[in-house]
Amino acid sequence: MRELMKALSDFETQLMESHGVTLNEAMALCAMGDECVTASVISERTGFRPSHTSKVISSLESKKHVIRKLGKQDKRQMYLSLSVSGKECLAQIKIHTFDIPPILHPLLQGYNL
Questions:
Q1: For position 40, which CATH number holds?
Q2: Cα–Cα distances in Å, from 20 out to 56, 76, 83?
Q3: Does residue 110 belong to any structural domain of this protein?
Q4: Of 53, 77, 88, 99, which is least packed with CB atoms within 10 Å of its CB?
Q5: Residue 18, Cβ neighbours under 10 Å: how many?
Q6: Is the pLDDT at 108 greater than 80, yes or no?
Q7: Using CB atoms within 10 A of its CB, is residue 34 exposed (0-12), middle (13-18) or buried (19+)?
Q8: How confident is the model at residue 24, as a pLDDT?
Q9: Would you call 88 helix, strand, or coil by DSSP?
């Protein structure tokens, strides 16, 4: 368990140093992609609890990677989309070659990382 947590921490350090986002923020960016989605969709796609999703979204907003929009039909509904800088960050993450710790290799087979 310790080795797994260390590997994930090392991976997150690479994300922070190269793109300025945490692993959870990167997951949220990927969950949004080119879509305009609700926080509940991000929660479903990432497996985050709603309270954690809210914190991650707030952090991405402070970094100017996410834009909030009110729903057109239902003004109570909030929709989220990537800003220009959020799209650029996600694009850079997708093309970045990461040094994946060996313990994570079996989990990431089939992904371009």
A1: 1.10.10.10
A2: 13, 32, 15
A3: no
A4: 99
A5: 13
A6: no
A7: exposed
A8: 96
A9: helix
Angstrom CA distances, 35 to 10, 23, 30, 91, stand at 29, 20, 10, 14
Confidence category of residue 43, pLDDT binned at 50, 70, 90: very high
Residue 107 lies in a domain: no
**Domain range holding 69?**
2-102
Per-residue pLDDT at 75 exceeds 90: no
| pLDDT for res 112 | 58
Structure tokens at 9: 């921490």
Residue 89 in this model has a pLDDT that exceeds 80: yes
Domain count, the chain: 1
CA distance 31 to 66: 12
